[in-house]
Amino acid sequence: MICLSKVRQLQKLFLGGLNVTRSTLFSIDVKHALLVDPEQSKHSNITVKGWVRSVRTHKESAFFHINDGSSISNLQVIVPLTKVPRNATFGSCIEAVGSLVTSLLPLQQPVELMADKVTVIGECNFRDYPFKAKKKHSLDYIRQYPHLRLRTLTFGALMRIRSAATRAIHEYFQREGFCLVHTPILTSNDCEGAGEVFKVEPIEKIQGTLKTDEKERNEEGAANFFGVPTFLTVSGQLHLEVASGAFSKVYTFGPTFRAENSRTRHHLSEFYMIEAEISFTETLEDIIKYIEGMLKFTSEEILNTCSSDVQFFVKNSSDFKHLEILENFVTKTFLRMSYTEAIEILTQNANNFENKVSWGIDLHKEHEQYLVRYCDNLPVFVTDYPLDVKPFYAKMNVNNKTVAAVDLLAPVVGEICGGSLREDCLDILIRRLDQEVPKDNLNWYLDLRRFGSVPHGGFGIGFERYLQVLLGIQNIKDAIIFPRSPNSCRL
Fold first, then answer.
1. Contact yes or no for 325/314 (Cβ under 8 A)
2. Residue 453: CB partners within 8 Å, gap ≥ 6?
3. Whose CA is closest to 236, among 404, 413, 462?
4. What pLDDT does residue 222 have?
5. How many CB atoms are closer than 10 A to CB 40?
6. How far apart are the first and last CA of the chain?
7. Model's pTM, two decimal places?
8. Highest mean pLDDT: which of 128-132, 208-212, 349-353?
9. How far apart are alpha carbons 168 and 333 in whole angstroms?
10. 46-58 vs 61-67, strand pairing mode
11. Over the stretch 299-309, which tens digit does the pLDDT of each residue have?
């Protein structure tokens, strides 16, 4: 619990009204240390802890740049050489106690810490440490050290941006009156019917040591721990539809899993999804409104709270011109076109694609990226897809050929979001299920249509893909802290 006196002390410090006495030790993080105005008040006996990003000596002083993850900027700590511990090296973690003073180079940073004492908290053998001071390491190299890459400036920035984005997403949905649902990670359903799921079984069964008596072996379902085949979820949508039968607006935000055997820079086996369901809606415009509103609100919040992190990440990981794309993403209205209009545009340039273009195909990534470029790198909603390329739950349009579905295409990655109105006609849903997935596994889903069903729809946004668009990240494995993919599950 934070005591009230501590809160008031913080308020005084940042307002420049605190004179810290010799008997007081005040601990502060790097981010807030850099906000202090030494001209307004005396700030002595300040304690700062962090990891050494660089160290150099000059005449009678040593200069440490330390960072504790709270800011993209480092705090410079100046220490008399006689008070520098021998094991205070690059990569080590130190505690410095001293006075915050105005920097002699205020354009580089406003304040610095004149330290009276430095203590090493955690040593680092800088010779064996895989990251070297003042050397720019490639993302491919950094990816080899998932347990250490958060120490780099690039992935420190990514961590803060992910945190800010997560906070903004929840804030948007709460402001709009959505109720958060914790959908299960374990499920007996394959939401999209693609079969690319991870099956969950006890380790004893995998090793062949599961103890089951003869009677239980003969009982139906005894071969499965939960009584039915169980998988890691590929989507929380079906469970959200359960909740949307009692709440008009619901959402979830959590991990999903897909056993797609692809090692490209476009795929992950574990990723995060933002999903929402809205009841009492019969138009795609309602779905589109929430998709665009959430993305713009989240992006604006990130630019307001993490502008330095975004600029650093874009500058060091992609084309700096991507900031213009990001500005358009936030300030300009997303475009719209139908699937049929998209096919007409692609057909005019069919010779430029590896994959054939014709009405009825599912769009490939090269098609999606071309359409975005055609729209001057603005995000574009594509609506009303052919019936056969969308899942069973998408609502059929009156022409019986297309469904009320929408994908959002964006720069860098192509599709980042998919949504639809959900089929609320029981007879049509039964026919679709008979054609696509075993109906017996989804009798409960049909019950949702039998008992008090209402028109509804929803969408799902890939969080890592969104971050790729925001930051210009080319490899999705650099948009998540602990990437999981085929033959790669380190840590």
1. no
2. 245, 424, 426
3. 462
4. 59
5. 12
6. 32
7. 0.89
8. 128-132
9. 20
10. antiparallel
11. 999 999 999 99
